[in-house]
Design a protein that fits this description.
The chain has about 120 residues and is mainly beta. About 0% of the residues lie in helices and about 55% in strands. The strands form 2 sheets. Strands 2, 4, 5, 6, 9, 10 and 11 form a 7-stranded mixed beta sheet that branches. A 4-stranded antiparallel beta sheet has the order 1-3-8-7, with no helix packed on it.
């Protein structure tokens, strides 16, 4: 049975940090890419960060320099280290794993940045 699951969300003050984790299992193949998206209320889902199997990374302009995506292949896990968090980073964060042309999604984890 395949699964994708995120952990690590929560409430943090502006300027603070959080680290999200996403673990996949049951696929039998290495992902082509592992991706972090977010969706705030009333807004479209947007790609925040992506890491390819090669290790190449991409970031949304609004998080460049503040967020870092990394992976641990042995643990089938991708991380999103989020620093200098801002209220506008508040959203539900989703992990997706692209394997053999298909995207598999987790249930999401809420990140709230507020005093």
């Amino acid at each position: 049975q395949v699964s994708v699951a995120e952990t690590g969300g929560g409430l943090v003050q502006p300027g603070g940090s959080l680290r999200l984790s996403c673990t996949h299992s049951g696929f039998g193949f290495s992902p082509f890419s592992m991706n972090w998206y977010r969706q705030a209320p009333g807004k479209q889902r947007e790609l925040v960060a992506r890491i390819f199997n090669s290790g190449t990374t991409n970031y949304h302009a609004s998080v460049q320099g503040r967020f870092t995506v990394s992976k641990d292949n042995l643990k089938n896990t991708v991380y999103l280290q989020m620093n200098e968090l801002k209220p506008e980073d508040t959203a539900k964060y989703y992990c997706s794993v692209q394997i053999q042309g298909h995207d598999y999604w987790g249930q999401g984890t809420q990140v709230t940045v507020s005093l």
